[in-house]
Structures are given as structure tokens and as C-alpha cells.
Write a sequence for this structure.
């Protein structure tokens, strides 16, 4: 049966933390490039690019989401 490779010396805590910090920095950079945010031209709220604004419901200057209908759905309860 083959033996597994074993490190000759213990990895110091500083070396482990340094390696992990580089991994964390790379992961953070990848996430920053994934989500693109911009300002809504109508209400100046933060919104994802190429998506309708969740605050005012507009996309490219026209109303696409009916926010009153969404509020009525949540508030009205049929008994």
C-alpha cells in the first residue's frame, strides 16, 4: 500500500494566514466584477444594470412594474 506524502515541517500560522488572505482577496475581486450597480435616472436609487428599478418600477424611462398592485397583493388578505 502506497504511503501518503507528509510535510517535513509544520506550516507556520503566518504562512497559512498569508495564503488565505491572497485567496480572500481574489474572491473579493471576482465578486466585485459580478454585480454591476448603477443609479436609476428617475429616482436615483441603486439598481442593477439592465434591470427594472425596484424602487420606482421603471426601465429605460417607461413604467414596467406596477408597484401599487404588488402592495395590494401583500396588504389584502382574503378571509
Amino acid at each position: 500500500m502506497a504511503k501518503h506524502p507528509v510535510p517535513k515541517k509544520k506550516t507556520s500560522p503566518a504562512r497559512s494566514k498569508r495564503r488565505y488572505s491572497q485567496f480572500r482577496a481574489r474572491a473579493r475581486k471576482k465578486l466585485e466584477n459580478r454585480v454591476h450597480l448603477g443609479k436609476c435616472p428617475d429616482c436615483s436609487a441603486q439598481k442593477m444594470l439592465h434591470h427594472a428599478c425596484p424602487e420606482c418600477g421603471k426601465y429605460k424611462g417607461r413604467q414596467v412594474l406596477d408597484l401599487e398592485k404588488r402592495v395590494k397583493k401583500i396588504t389584502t388578505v382574503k378571509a
Q: What stands out?
A: The helical segments are 13-34, 67-75. The chain has one domain: 14-75. The chain has two helices and four strands.
